Amino acid sequence: MSFDINRLVRENIRKLVPYSSARDEFKGKADIYLDANENSLGSPLPKNYNRYPDPHQWKLKYRISEIKGVPPQNIFIGNGSDECIDILYRGFCNPGKDNVIICPPTYGMYEVSAGVNDVEIRKARLLDDFQLDLIHLENLADENTKLIWICSPNNPTANSFNREDIESILNNFEGIIVIDEAYINFSRQKSFIQELTEYPNLVVMQTLSKAWGLAALRLGMAFASEDMIAVFNKIKPPYNIGQATQDLVLQALENIGEVNQFIKELVQSREELVSSLMNVRVVEKVYPSDANFLLVKVSNAKKIYNYLLTKAIVVRDRSKVELCEGCLRITVGTKNENDQLIEALKAV
Fold it and tell me: Looking only at Cα atoms, what is the longest distance across the chain?
């Protein structure tokens, strides 16, 4: 499929002259920096945080490139995946004119960000088995459909979508397909990152918040063609990732073995938690999970949610979400946390 990104970029973004920071205009090494109006005396912190960070985070991108097998020029680093989501709307969707398709129940920020950017949301509800409804998707799409959001493994249903269904969308949709793989490390499915060269209209999002345990640092990643990444870089604020975050993430990325052990332990704990929940009277169903959480149907979701609060245990009540009626979403905790949860549920 031939794909011209300029056909989809908003006209004002095509014409936009991006802000040029001091660190964009000078990229070499110097002894004296008097170009960026920084505090030349230093800072109260032990490290040299008085200087602006690399606006394009190249050290970080090269390290991520080594881990993911994607060239650094095909990587965008965002202040959380939410920044990546917002930039896609601002780059490609004309307010009040264009539309996007989501597949509920799914991650809520796709719809919130659409509302912020005045972009119409069209909903292709999942089938009863939580898989994509391809016929509904096809019927919803028109010439003004710019983005299709696919969260796989999906939040809050925890399942991965059939790969053949996603490939069918990639082969037939002429807009941009965004696959959000926030939970891919816990999944049996293969990432779509390796398909980037085959599909120039594909954006794959991942995060360091889940498997890497860096939620507090707010770092999301988008992988896409160079032309797509160029649009991201045109729109983003000049210094969207702080130096402290870059330093800490680089430190964390040296510990792949430890993270792989986290993943292994969490997947094992997930399976043990499933078994334990199935022996609890108030639990009616535990849905299959490819994530670090479970969607659990219970006899009275609101009552059980409130009861768990009295035991200082917080889960997520998803009982008002379409297709998740009567369900709680439960993150896989430590062994001790999971044991306390089961004990509390048995006492309901």
Answer: 70
Decide if 302 contacts 295 (C-beta within 8 A): no
Provide the pLDDT for residue 247: 96
Check whether residue 24 and residue 117 sit in a common domain.
yes
pLDDT tens for residues 269-284? 999 999 999 999 999 9
Examine the domain organization and report whether 130 and 187 are in the same domain: yes
The letter for the amino acid at 212 is W
Model-level pTM? 0.95
DSSP assignments along 151-201, one per residue: ESS-TTT-PPPPHHHHHHHHHH-SSEEEEE-TTGGG-SSPPSGGGTTT-TT
Most confidently modeled range among 28-32, 51-55, 84-88: 84-88
The backbone torsions φ and ψ at residue 172, rounded to the nearest 5 degrees and listed phi first, read -120, -20
Q: What is the DSSP string of 17-77?
A: -----HHHH--S--S---SS---TT--SSSS-TTSPPPTT-HHHHHHHHHHHT--GGGEEE
Q: Is the pLDDT of residue 2 over 80?
A: no
CA distance linking residue 131 with residue 225, whole number of Å: 27
Cα atoms found within 13 Å of the Cα of residue 178, Cβ hemisphere only:
28
Q: Could you tell me the two tokens for 16?
A: 């936009």
Does 24 lie in the same domain as 118? yes
